[in-house]
Amino acid sequence: MSEAHPLSRRARLLLGGLALLLAGGITARLLAGGPGGDADDAPPAPPEATLAKGPDGRPALQLARGQAEALDLQVAPAREAPAADRLILHGVVLDPLPLLELEARHRSAEAALRAARSGEAAALAELARVRSLHAADRGASDRALQEAEGAAAAASAQRQGAEGEARKAQAAWTQYGLRDTLGLADFRRVVVRLDLPLGQPAPSPLPRSLSATAPGLAGPLALAVVGLAPGGSPLTGGLALLALAPGAGLRPGLPVDATLAAQPATHVLVPRTSLLWSDGQARVFVEVGPGRFEPRAVAVAFSLDESVALAGGLKKDEPVVLRGALALQGEYARLAEGTAIGAGGV
C-alpha cells in the first residue's frame, strides 16, 4: 500500500476559504428567516384597519380583508318591532303612610300660613296705632314705635317663611294627583303604581280607567288613573302611572298587572349586544359599504327581554352589527387616536 500524500499548502487554503463561504451563507439564512428560509419566506404583516369616509361624509371604520372573520362579526338587516295592540303594565300597591304624612304636612303648613298672616295683620294694625299716637304726641314714645316696627317686621318675615313652606308642602302633595287621603289609612282605598317600560312614553291622553288583576282576587280590578307617579318607576327607570283602587283584598306590596292600549308607533328592534354607550349616548355600528362600518347615534324607545326598540337613528333593513360591536368600537377608538390596529383586533 502506498502512503497518502499530504495536501499541498495551496489546496488547504482553498478548502478553508470554501468553508468560510459556506458558513457565511448559512448565517445569512438564519438571520433572514430561520433555518432553510430567506427574507421572501417570512410571513406577511397582518392587514390593518383604516378610517375612511362613509356615504354621509362622517368617519367610518374600513376593515381589511379577513378582519371581519377575525373579529367574528355578525351583520343583519335591522327589523321592525312587531306592532302590539296592548301593553301589560306591572305594578304594586303602595304603602299609604308616605301619602298620609304628605297630606298632614300640607294641612299643617296651610294652618301655619293662616296663623302667620293673621299675626302679620295684627302686628301691622298695632304699628299703625302706635304711629298715630306717636305722631300726635299722645303717649307713644320713640321706644314704643321702634318695638312696634320690629314686631311688624318679624311678623312679615314669619309670614314669608310660612308661605315658602306652604308652597313646598303643596307641591309635594299635589304631584300625586290626589284630592285627599280618605280611606287610605284603613285600606278602603289603595294607591297603585304601574311601571312603564324604560323609554315608553306616557299615554296621551292619560286613560281615566284601567282593568287590572291581582293575586287572590277572583275578578278584574277597576283602577282610576290619577296621573304620573312623581320620580317615575324605581324598578324600570321609566315613567309610571298612579291609580286608585278599591282596597278590598289589597295590601301594600301586592303585585298588580294592568292592560294598557298600545299607541301606534314604528320602532326598529336590535339585540342588546348591538347597543353601545358612550358619554350617555347610545350607538350602533352600521355597515355602509363592503367591510366599512359607521358608528351611528340612536334613540332608545324602550327595552324588552333581549332586545332594544329604537325610536330614531336607524331605519328598517339597514345592516347593523349584531355581534362584535364592542370589538369594532375598540378598533375605531384606537384608530381615531392615531394607533393602527392589526387584523386580529384586541
TrEMBL record:
Signal peptide: none
Highest taxon of the lineage: Bacteria
Keyword Nucleotidyltransferase: no
Transmembrane segments: none
Coiled-coil region: 145-172
Positions of the UniProt region annotated as Disordered: 35-58
Keywords per UniProt: Coiled coil, Transport
Name by which UniProt lists this protein: HlyD family efflux transporter periplasmic adaptor subunit
Originating species: Geothrix rubra
Phylogenetic lineage: Bacteria, Pseudomonadati, Acidobacteriota, Holophagae, Holophagales
